[in-house]
Write a structure and sequence with these properties.
The chain is an alpha/beta fold. It is built from 10 helices and 8 strands. It has helices at 56-62, 86-103, 116-126, 150-157, 160-175, 185-188, 198-205, 224-228, 258-271, 295-315; strands at residues 10-14, 20-24, 38-43, 67-72, 109-114, 141-145, 240-246, 281-283. Strands 1-2-4-3-5-6-7-8 form an 8-stranded mixed beta sheet, sandwiched between helices. Helix 2 crosses helix 3 and helix 5 (160-175) packs across helix 7. The chain is globular and about 50 Å long. The two termini are 34 Å apart.
Amino acid sequence: MALAPSPLPGSLHRYSSHLVAFEYASDTTNISSPTGVHTLLFVAGLSDGLYTVPFTIPLARSLPPNWRFVQPLLSSSYAGWGTSSLDKDVQELVQCIKYILNLRPKGKIVMMGHSTGCQDIMHYLLSPLGKTETPRPHLAGGILQAGVSDRESMVMLLPEELYKSSVRLAQSYTSEGRAEDVLPMAATGGFMNVPISARRWLALASPPPAHDGEDDYFSSDLSYDRLKDSFGRIGSTGTHIQILFGEKDQYVPRSVDKKRLVEKWERVIRSGGGIVDKESGIVMGANHNLDNASEEVIQNLVRRVVGFLSRIEEKT
């Protein structure tokens, strides 16, 4: 579906000195609940900003009366991702969640990631705490929508020699102590037309042999041991998971069996004691962000998310 220019009703929250989040105001926003008001916190992907993902508005309008749809702006929003990191995203998401919980102390938080927002969820749940960092607020649920491999996408989209030469240059910058320097646009092929630091390029490209880029959670070729150390540890967080993977996601190589990949992730989560939602799986007819998707496809995704929120409210 195309996003037509239009005003959006809601509230703008300043959750830190320089960052804001927008809370969509639906027809049921003023309805109170004895169990508290809960929040679906939506974290978008590379180059996205407030409500630029097409399905956000129909989803926000469809939430149960005691749920609120909130999308934060992060330093990595729009073109900022090229010099940012998952670590910084998580720090800012913690600030946003603490702000929300201060407003609604009885409410639950479910984080829904789109694309790189899924990496943010994984990093929020699994990355080590910083030396001065207190435990992160609990997520009742995490929704991984279009969690794809940046590495596999880059290999698919970039000429092979450009991918290899860009990695070599980024590694050279890093070895010279220039990891935060921006790579020449010619070196990255103008990737997404964004200035990108050597550090972030390597985090996304996750070159061989180690494939140890910070962002590399969803590549289809990761070993079982590697998945055990990521998906397999979700159970210890107590966060319920729903995976929504587009049948026609254009950023996934054709050689990847999407259904088998999702089922593998689900098995690893369950093997570690984690809970995977019953509506997790492939979203038929959906591409990466559901742009130009039919109403039937959009409502399929919306229905599954709303059902997950209802089950979270009942079980946790």
